[in-house]
Design goal:
Elements: H1 2-30, H2 36-51, H3 64-94
């Protein structure tokens, strides 16, 4: 019970300082003495929160050999599962 009230207190404090934090970020971004790298990082943070993070795409390239090998492994696994199922069915019929 005590923990919940402490968490709520911390959350309220963060909500209270949000306007000040936003103003400070704006001031840093517009201040000519702020290093460019810091401005880029701040702008990224603002955009991520305002617009959501950009989707990340991954390009995967593979050879036909790799695909064929993966397919063979998958088919072997399927075959093993089929054999296990057949054995279970046969064992069930014998009982």
């Amino acid at each position: 019970m005590k923990t919940n009230s402490r968490v709520e207190e911390i959350n309220r404090w963060f909500l209270e300082i949000c306007p000040q934090a936003i103003t400070s970020m704006r001031d840093l971004i517009t201040d000519p003495s702020t290093p460019v790298a810091s401005k880029v990082q701040l702008i990224g943070m603002v955009l991520d929160r305002a617009l959501g993070k950009a989707e990340t795409s991954i390009k995967v390239t593979t050879s036909q050999e790799s695909i064929d090998e993966a397919e063979a492994q998958l088919m072997a696994m399927v075959h093993e599962f089929q054999i296990e199922d057949e054995l279970k069915e046969a064992a069930g019929e014998e009982s």
